[in-house]
Write a structure and sequence with these properties.
2 copies of one chain form a homodimer. With 204 residues, chain A is an alpha+beta fold. Chain A is built from 10 helices and 4 strands, in the order E-H-E-H-E-E-H-H-H-H-H-H-H-H. A 4-stranded mixed beta sheet of chain A has the order 2-1-3-4. In chain A, helix 4 packs antiparallel against helix 6 and helix 4 packs parallel to helix 7. The relative contact order of chain A is 0.14. Chains A and B meet through strand 4, helix 3, helix 4 and helix 6 of A and strand 4, helix 3, helix 4 and helix 6 of B.
Chain lengths: 204, 204
């Protein structure tokens, strides 16, 4: 195994969490570098795109979360070998990014503007997008997004669903997945009860 | 080779263009489905995420442009075999997506608001982002984003640089790459003069 150092913020979620989960599931040793605010400000100028996560692999820095998640997926056996199944795994990860980009602009808004924008997302674009993710999951059999087994795509969607249901996103109803895409909530619950994932969160 | 149908809008650019270029470079036969406005409105309800491009491969639909570009890159030999070089190829493609997401919200703005938003991007976030892309290119030797050879990442960045310099983006100065990231412009010119790419655009 290569020498790995994954740098990301110190909370259970976000763009760096799927890679952390995959490495834990596969029992792959890595330096789990948890970055706090002051350190982030110091690190930022050295980061390829000014943001986290970054993965150092045998001394080479890789940026961009989806690139990192795929690399870690390949290292841990959580990425399909098959060309088309790999693309379906990628498709779901990109769809998760789209959801994050839908929410992105609202983070820098004043609270009244944020409330309006997020309520519009919850009734419109985000709701529809979760419906699209659900439909793709249903087309693949309803349990996994690709390869009929757990892949890095499932971890990525799990982290998104967990985020939306967590209550940390003001003005986004926590029951949005339940109402708009109940199959995504079932998927979330199934991933959460994976023995390695349950043990990981129980231990922290 | 699998049976391929790539559906995307009928113009030289955008999220579907890198896959079209890759298929042409590798002389891989595919159905080049060019979608016009009225047909898009008909197709939209059937598209996995309501958007183009989509790739049909042996009857299976794959959505999300980066997923499609990677699949086509793997089919055409324009994606690295090496794990880390593959991740650096992915990183650049994701960075192109970030640039598109920076511009995204401005498309639905009124013209005065659009002008202010895009001028701010050209002096700020977009300018910085092009600088980051340039720095990554420089770190890899200045010619290619990964694997020291032409990959789908180079086609993806080429299409972005071409877009910004084309003049089709109101209020984004066409000389922004020249001023903010001259190495990206050199990279653009080198990709553009690739014999297969030059012949492709000359023929259309």
């Amino acid at each position: 195994m290569p020498k790995l150092k994954l740098s990301y913020f110190d909370f259970h979620g976000g763009r760096g969490e799927p890679a952390r989960l995959a490495l834990h599931i596969a029992d792959v040793a890595f330096e789990d570098h948890r970055v706090r605010g002051p350190e982030f400000r110091e690190l930022k100028p050295e980061l390829p795109y000014g943001s986290l996560p970054v993965l150092e692999i045998d001394g080479i820095i890789v940026a961009q979360s989806t690139a990192i998640n795929r690399l870690v997926g390949r290292l841990t056996g959580l990425y399909p070998d098959d060309l088309v199944q790999g693309a379906l795994c990628d498709e779901a990860m990109e769809a998760v990014e789209d959801a994050r980009h839908l929410l992105g602009p609202s983070f820098s808004m004043r609270d009244d503007e944020k409330k309006a924008a997020r309520e519009a997302l919850a009734d419109g674009a985000l709701r529809n997008h979760l419906g699209c993710l659900q439909a793709r999951l249903a087309q693949r059999g309803g349990k996994y997004f690709a390869d009929q087994r757990l892949t890095i795509a499932d971890l990525s969607v799990f982290v998104l669903t967990r985020y939306i249901t967590s209550g940390t996103l003001d003005h986004i109803p926590t029951d949005l997945p339940e109402r708009a895409a109940p199959l995504l909530l079932e998927h979330h619950d199934a991933v959460k009860s994976h023995p390695k994932i349950a043990a990981y969160y129980a231990s922290r």
